[in-house]
Amino acid sequence: MGHSTVVDELPVENVDGPVLISFERLREEGLCRLDRSVRLTGSLVVLWCAGKCLIVFNRSRQAWELPGGMLDPGESPREAAIRELDEESGQRPDTLDFAGVAQTRGAPDHRPAFLAIYRGQIASPLTFTPNDEISECAWWDPRGDLAGLFPGAAALARLCQ
């Protein structure tokens, strides 16, 4: 799969059940060589501005998380990352690079899945307008903790610094 590094400080379990099992740094072309028995279901974006990471507050989960979501039919992981970032936060990154792939185990069925993780930068964040899914956005300093932030999201942000 080209250059890859598996990070050892995982797994991390979120309070609502899903578990971040692993994060593997690889090239975007490596996505096509993932274990086909595990579905690639979505994309997340770790967006940075002045050393802080964008997080969004999900109304239904009542928690802070990274922007992202499920792939629509026929959509590439990169297209999903850009669409979800825009839909959830209104942000459009200056740069967006593929960071790697996370493997998760969902709740309640414990089914494994892959998530494509993208890392971006933005110099001038756009104004956020609350929507049906996301009530607020914040720029979080990963050197600190934040009540209500999913541990898996915090781990991925720190791994993508």
Catalogue the unreliable spans. 1-8
Instruction: Provide the β-strand percentage band.
Output: 35-45%
The total of beta strands comes to 10
Kindly state the percentage of residues in helix: 10-25%
How would you portray this structure in words?
The protein is mostly beta strands and 161 residues long. The protein has a single domain, classed as Nucleoside Triphosphate Pyrophosphohydrolase (Alpha-Beta Complex), CATH 3.90.79.10. 14% of the residues lie in helices and 39% in strands. It is built from 2 helices and 10 strands, in the order E-E-E-E-E-E-E-H-E-E-E-H. It has helices at 77-89, 151-159, and strands at 5-6, 12-13, 19-25, 39-49, 52-58, 63-65, 68-70, 95-105, 112-121, 134-140. Strands 1, 2, 3, 4, 5, 6, 7, 8, 9 and 10 form a 10-stranded mixed beta sheet that branches. Mean pLDDT is 91; it is low at 1-8.
